[in-house]
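Ticket #4471: structure output looks truncated?

Reporter: J.K.
Steps to reproduce: submitted the chain below (293 residues) through the standard prediction queue, then opened the result file.
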Amino acid sequence: MKRYIKNIMLLSLVATGFIACESSNKAINDVFDTVTRGAVFRATTPTADIAAQSLSFSDPSSSFSTTFEVEDNAQGALLQDVQVYSSFTSAADPDSSVAEVLITTLPASAFSPNADELPSITVAYTLGELAAASGLTASDYTGGDSFIIRYVLNLTDGRAFSNGNLNNTVSGGSYFRSPFQYTIPLVCPPIVPTAGEWTLALQDSYGDSWNGASLDVIIDGTSTNYTHDGGAETTFAFDVPAGTESIQIVHNTGSYDEENSFQVVSANGETVLDLGPSPAKGNLFDFCLPLNL
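Returned output as attached by the reporter:
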């Protein structure tokens, strides 16, 4: 009798286990059935390579390029298209910034399978193209400004993904790498100064001196100080060696800057600075100016 009761209890436990497993599996299936999976627009170009890119403000042909792949729960088969937007940010004058505009729409047919059999595409835009899309001319931007490119991934089921509906894991994670938005800085090209003798002319309208004001001429990190000690004008010559990479001219203010003016003439005869009265304080050499040095 005891053995009979024991067998009944064992069968009951087994049956309960089956019911519990079935109930648990049903719960898991219910969860999976209600989970919505998104999609990523993954940059396969290394993150460091993307960050190293910029646009030379004086070269309309300079470009920004990134390769992407689309991944969803159907191996990219849900891809409908990708919209590309661009906006412009002026560092010096925020009122001159340009709101986001649609540049183009990349259809699924523009993508090709990569080694992982995912839809892939390389997108590149030149400064000239981005400027034209924002209605800008070359005089409207300079070094320090930037463009922002934003992508919107549209799926055939009506869903859309961009930088506004993702989390940090997707945008910045090492696997997903899908920020959907990229800031492209405009930079000043290096200007190689003309080697030879340059001229520095300092004037004082009162005719006494610069009253404590002076100029520092810094050539590849080596600084020489110049000032005006009296009279209408003092002229200096300084040598720019061959191979010089940078020149800085810094104005140190004095007591009567409203009397002071000066000019800098390069070895090729180009007047690269002509400032005053009351020259501004600090570094006055703007390497973003299209000067013939």
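Triage note (M.O.): checked the attachment and the full token line is present. Helices lie at 2-34, 47-51, 127-133, 168-172.
Status: closed, working as intended.
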